Amino acid sequence: MTSLRFFFWFLLISFSASAQKDYKLWLQYHKIQNAAIASEYKSNLQGIVSLGSSATSKISLTELETGISDMLGNKPEVKSVINGENNLIFGAQTNLNSDLQKIFQSDFTQINNEGFIIKSVLLKNKKQIVITGKNDVAVLYGVYSFLRLMQTNKSIKSINIVDAPKTNIRILNHWDNLDRTVERGYAGFSLWNWQKLPDFIDQRYIDYARANASIGINGTVLTNVNANALILTPQYLEKVTALANVFRPYGIKVYLTARFSAPIEIGGLKTADPKDTEVANWWKEKAKEIYKSIPDFGGFLVKANSEGQPGPQNYGRDHVDGANMLADAVAPFGGVIMWRAFVYSEHDANDRAKQAYAEFQPYDGKFRDNVIVQVKNGAIDFQPREPFHPLFGAMPKTPLMMEFQITQEYLGFSTHLVFLPKLFQEVLESETYQKGKGSTIAKVIDGSLNPHKLTGIAGVSNIGNDLNWTGHPFAQANWYGFGRLAWNPYLDAEIIADEWLRATFSNDENFIKPVKDMMLTSREAVVNYMTPLGLHHIMDTGHHYGPGPWVSNLSRPEWNPTYYHKADKNGIGFDRSKTGTNATAQYAAEGEKIFDNLETCPEKDLLWFHHVSWDYKLKSGQTLWNGMALKYQEGVNQVKEMQNTWSKTKKYVDSERYKEVEMLLAIQYKEAKWWRDACLLYFQQYSGKELPVGVEKSTQTLEYFKSLKFPFAPGN
Ligand code: BDP
């Protein structure tokens, strides 16, 4: 081989090795560097015994074999019976022998159907580690949990874990269209290759299911909430069935979005009125047809009478009529309706933030028991920061499902490094005060505040067919973190970041510490350089890329950023207190009082609830104008610091991912400055004040920023 050919060959190999790292997500199974831990694992994991033979058991076995041999550098012996000691034994409750049944008897009473037990036990006086649960999927969760312990180099010597998910629907919402474009998708096209399905099963479907199972996600809505009825035709259902078959052994159920007007569009009916018997029967027949080929079909997610989507109101009916009609269609098969509360209307002059509550709160207790109402975390729309949605504290008789957005529609797309579990945790820890102090959103969601049979958390997916799945290597952490929080809404974001970094990159403390800090501050950084102090929805309209606080020419008032910030000569902010739209009254009394009063309203939400003067004194002693300008600058500085942190990680990260993140952080820095400069120049017209010391002056004019256009911004 000539040296040039050798060089290209070498490049190819190292590129694919590195690209594979990106693709492998948090399931890298790096060789363990810590000798003491590696030898502890080796002595405890001499053999693997599978007590099951299902497709799911086979996945568990393969996963353990690959994970353990990659991490330890040698293959453990796979045994067909339990003999000797220091084996890793796994299997579902019904497959355990009587000795093991006895050992785990009381643990089984502590877990639900998806929970697992991992324990070091003495079986006939021999030390073994056992992973068990009530069925094979639960065992698979235990297997991934065990491998995660190894990936994070935790001791397994006297392992004793009993764990179970706190919510029952842990689901990704894909806003994927049938032409494979993804609404608000920034990581390529849809994974679902409808044209080649059902006969061609892309390896990616399997890898997708595996990644989800590894973090406990058990459902996927394949299609966009802005739905296309064609997905419900036999031609497409056959394709959906093929996907469901791939996902089933991983414990993942398939759901679809239901276009409310489907009975007209594909059923040939004259109406989609939910009170019309023919319509109700059409849905019943449709459900029967689906369940015939997908017996464990999860159900429907519905966006109705929202942003132009059809719904029951087109026929003078309401959300309850619509949801219950669909609920009756899927109930005989155990299906669920996830009905979205994301509604606001151009005909309603009321504060947009109040509309979903005004419409849905009176329906409390009126839905069938297989309906769960899906509520976005905030009352407007997935902003970098929003106070929690007031519906969470106001519908005790209705199961409410959280809807988070993992894809970064309003948070810099897949170019900005923003660790979202910080945002998710802030929401889940918020106090609704529904039953006094301690009534957190996590408790509403997991059904512990007001008991409900159905509980759940949905995340709008950030996954596409990019090689690295999510566009930004660090956006993988948001998928990961979403799954972990859906399993346990009380998990700390710091623990999630720690696990993810170790599993994805390295266990070296010199890497973990600074990079974890970087992740944990990244959410506050984006708030600072985009929408500090409670500002919101001042992104450029339509695509939501970059700043556009000046936009005021759109037909619907609430589509204009000026509607949200209300900057004028006197000050800035949306008065949602008693003196304004009184949106604060939608919160339970204790919360209402806090938000309503300028003195007690958290400064992070100040301009969400209050219109305050430019000279208003912040807690820091700064005027509002100076404080706001300093926040914008702080955000920019934080990104600079992120770049600085990353520049020191070269020796811990493969060159490709190092370079990717380096380039992305450079874009983020550029865009953070763009945000700061554009917003401050714009607001300065109203405040009429100079920038305080420490805030850099823009090198461009406001006119320049206003002239920027992005007709092909992705995801729109
Ligand atoms: C907004 C998005 C829009 C979605 C809508 C929704 O801009 O693309 O269709 O929410 O959630 O965030 O229905």
TrEMBL record:
It is an enzyme of class 3 (hydrolase). GO terms for biological process: glucuronoxylan catabolic process. The active site is at 307 (proton donor), 381 (proton acceptor), 409 (proton acceptor). Belongs to the glycosyl hydrolase 67 family. Keywords: Carbohydrate metabolism, Glycosidase, Hydrolase, Polysaccharide degradation, Signal, Xylan degradation. Residues 1-19 form the signal peptide. Homodimer. This is Xylan alpha-1,2-glucuronidase. Residues 25-146 form the Alpha glucuronidase N-terminal domain. Pfam families: Glyco_hydro_67C, Glyco_hydro_67M, Glyco_hydro_67N. The keyword Hydrolase applies. Residues 470-694 form the Glycosyl hydrolase family 67 C-terminal domain. One of its GO terms (cellular component) is extracellular region. It catalyses: Hydrolysis of (1->2)-alpha-D-(4-O-methyl)glucuronosyl links in the main chain of hardwood xylans. Residues 150-469 form the Glycosyl hydrolase family 67 catalytic domain. The keyword Signal applies. GO terms for molecular function: alpha-glucuronidase activity; xylan alpha-1,2-glucuronosidase activity. Its EC number is 3.2.1.131.
